[in-house]
Design a protein that fits this description.
Length: 121
């Protein structure tokens, strides 16, 4: 029996050591699984945050485009008004010059009236 006792004790000790190692590996696996769940939840939250930021950036870009359109419209109207004022100024200047020429010419309309005055009037 002594001959069998040493190998049996050796196998028993190895079995106990394997059981201990298996329990340690099971605990490690359980902890790894728990940490994986935490990482997966954090990753999902990060994805949601990235989507929220992307959506906000899209809305901001749309708002900036709209502001640009709203600024451009009055600017176009102002440019049109400036052009109208320039044309009006040129017309007034032209009329003023014509009026000055007319005054310098000795008021030809009075000469025309006298020349075409009906007889006996």
């Amino acid at each position: 029996m002594f001959a069998l006792k040493a190998p049996v004790e050796s196998v028993s000790a190895a079995s106990t050591e394997m059981l201990s190692s298996t329990e340690a590996m099971a605990a490690t696996t359980e902890e790894t699984s728990r940490q994986s769940s935490v990482v997966a939840a954090a990753s999902e939250e990060a994805t949601t945050n990235v989507q929220t930021v992307a959506s906000a950036a899209e809305e901001l870009a749309s708002s900036i485009d709209e502001i640009g359109r709203q600024v451009a419209e009055p600017a176009g109207i102002a440019e049109g008004a400036v052009e109208e004022a320039r044309v009006t100024s040129e017309t007034v200047k032209s009329l003023s010059e014509a009026s000055q020429k007319y005054r310098r010419s000795g008021q030809p309309h009075q000469r025309y009236r006298r020349a075409n005055k009906p007889a006996g009037a």
